[in-house]
Amino acid sequence: MRKLPPLSLYLHIPWCVQKCPYCDFNSHALKGEVPHDDYVAHLLADLDADLPLTAGRTVETIFIGGGTPSLLSSEAMQNLLDGVRARLPLSADAEITMEANPGTVEADRFSGYQRAGVNRISIGVQSFSAEKLERLGRIHGPDEAKRAAHLATGLGLRSFNLDLMHGLPNQTLEQALDDLRQAIALNPPHLSWYQLTIEPNTLFASRTPVLPDDDALWDIFEQGDKLLTAAGYQQYETSAYAKPGYQCQHNLNYWRFGDYLGVGCGAHGKLTQPDGTILRTVKTKHPRGYMQGRYMDKQHEVDGKELPFEFFMNRFRLLEAAPREEFGIYTGLEESSIRAQLDEAIASEYLVETATHWQITEKGKLFLNSLLELFLAD
After folding, report:
1. 126-161 burial: b if 16+ Cβ within 10 Å, else e
2. Domain assignment present for 269
3. What is the pLDDT of residue 206?
4. 124-182, pLDDT tens digit by residue?
5. Cα atoms found within 13 Å of the Cα of residue 40, Cβ hemisphere only
6. What is the DSSP letter of 2?
7. Which of 68, 101, 211, 359 sits CB 3.0–4.6 Å from 321 for a disulfide?
């Protein structure tokens, strides 16, 4: 039986103090002041235009990303979230996450964000090494990162996350593990621990630093994973670890092939319509065009032949078993349409199938690209 998936809302704040050399997100170095009130007015107008696409559903989670959302004043954040609540039904226990840079997390300001409704923050620490932070173009130091984590603990938020990178330029195993130990000591309920990758159109792509080789990266991952597991964290996605009960609900909805409305510069959306069609939306990337009221850049209907790949590309990032019935519910396709590919995945020992679920195996995790390629449209 086809039903509409859970709905999340993503809000994008596009400015940073300066652009980091590894970053390929839609962020723009700030020239002058943040246009707090103007930008919030445009976000809400963009939301108004998209409301018909939400089919009246309740929003389960909100994620405010960037850029650096913590450059937005707490008053502007209050106006933004009040505006969202006035337009969309919000689940009573909605998780509302905001990304923040340690250098822009001020105590008085953060209690303002909390009053506005933010109940989870994601702090972009990346490393506790002053030298590595400088190499990554970060504008905060190790002490600010620790202060931000202590502040998040003291605020009594629902949860907070620390973002940490490994595989940094010239990073040794011991340096990577030392970063992880310092993060664990701060006791965040959630840790995103991901490998630095060189993305096209970044400064690092044009002047590539020396990164650890594959063997060194594997050692870092293997030993880091042991440290995290021993400290009570459970890996639930490729680069996400959480204490039991503290997984990021917003990201879980992405990976389970839920729907999300993308509002703000360059924001992406995926919205299932009552007739079963799935729309992908992309908003205007540059703040200049966006703030002239040109919100929608691209919108297209996902071809049914592409849905199996899209579904599994998200679903198999999660380590949990995938309920077989959700394939039909969320794609509108019969399982028989992918039976041959499933059988091949099972024969290759990438997947295990039970009467109710599919579970990716250790081999499947290692050969994830090969597994996903089975579901590519011809």
Report:
1. bbbbeebbebbbbbbbbebbbbbbebbeebebbbbb
2. no
3. 77
4. 999 999 999 888 888 888 999 999 999 999 999 999 999 999 999 999 999 999 999 99
5. 18
6. -
7. 359
What's the domain count of the chain?
2
Rounded Cα gap, residues 207 and 158, in angstroms = 40
Q: Kindly report the number of other CB atoms within 10 A of residue 324's CB atom.
A: 15
Instruction: Using alpha carbons, select from 338, 372, 335, 340 the residue that is nearest to residue 356.
Output: 335
Q: Mutual orientation of helices 107-116 and 74-87 as an angle, nearest 10°? A: 10
Bridge partners of 7, per DSSP, are 59, 259
363 domain residue, yes or no: yes
- 265, 43 Cβ separation under 8 angstroms: no
Residues 6+ apart with CB under 8 A from 31: none
Q: Which structural domain range is residue 111 located in?
A: 7-253
pTM, whole model, 2 decimals? 0.95
**Does residue 170 share a domain with residue 28?**
yes
Judge whether 140 lies within some domain: yes
Query: Residue 166 is encoded by which pair of tokens?
Result: 């490994």
Scan for tokens 């703000």, then name that residue.
264
Structure tokens belonging to residue 118: 């933010």
User: Does 268 have pLDDT greater than 70?
Assistant: yes
Is there a single domain that holds both residue 74 and residue 203?
yes
Alpha carbon distance 90, 281 (integer Å) = 22
The 10s digit of each residue's pLDDT in 6-42 is 999 999 999 988 777 677 677 888 888 899 999 999 9
